[in-house]
Write a structure and sequence with these properties.
The structure is a single chain. This protein has one domain: Rossmann fold. Helices cover about 40% and strands about 15% of the residues. Strands 3-2-1-4-5-6 form a 6-stranded parallel sheet, with helices on both faces. Strands 7-8 form a two-stranded antiparallel ribbon. α3 packs parallel to α4.
Amino acid sequence: MTDMNSTASQSSRVVAVTGAGTGIGRATARAFAAEGAHVVAIGRRAEPLEQTAAGHDRIRPLAADITAEGEPDRILRTVLDTHGRLDVLVNNAGIVRGGALGTLTPDMIGVQPATNLVAPILLTQAALPLLETSSGVIANGSTPVGQRAWPGSSVYAATKTALELLTRSWAVELAPRGIRVVAVAPGAIDTPIGEHRGLTPERIAAVRGWHLAHTPLGRIGRPQEVAWAVTRLAAPAAARRSPGSPHRPRRSSPEWYSRSTEGQSWRDRSGPGGGDGC
């Protein structure tokens, strides 16, 4: 059996990563490129995407709003015109708009399912013909709050709960077509999610302190650690592992991973939630 740590298996594959301008998405795009894959880095803002691609000639930035009408088809046409195939789709983009029940506005509510749930559905649906041709992989970015309560961010948590259910359902639904579906749900990760939420530096420091106090290792995870998990689960060698003996991360890791493939699922929890690929 091919070693799952082998980088040769990613060579010449084509990977599309949403939310690739910062954080986990940027790290994931770079990790795939470092292993020889051609990567289309997708995000709303061109400048952060250019920074993601800087020094990585296998990364092509593509500015796109995945929630806009017609964008999934445009993204897939660009991938096909540029590389002629698609092997891995990473649905990493996510957005958080915090607010307790009673303070939520229609805009605060609507943008979260639009970005975190509807957009991945439509983009994945548009990608199915290419992924079926390549026997490809769909990797969804989730979070442990999809399995736990998150007071003050209940809408976000609900969207991730739904995305995990989609992951399990798609894994069974698409297996006969040769497409694997996996998810990675990191815990507390050092990303700009707080800044994207508009939190003050003081609030960001308080949230980080809470995470540190509730993470056994006493440290915040790095985006590169999550990217490693994504590349390993998406690797061709992962498809050849027995469903009865899944590849489990070390329990010393501060992340929490969820994998669902060919209708099988497992979890390893070792830290609190809150990570995101924004």
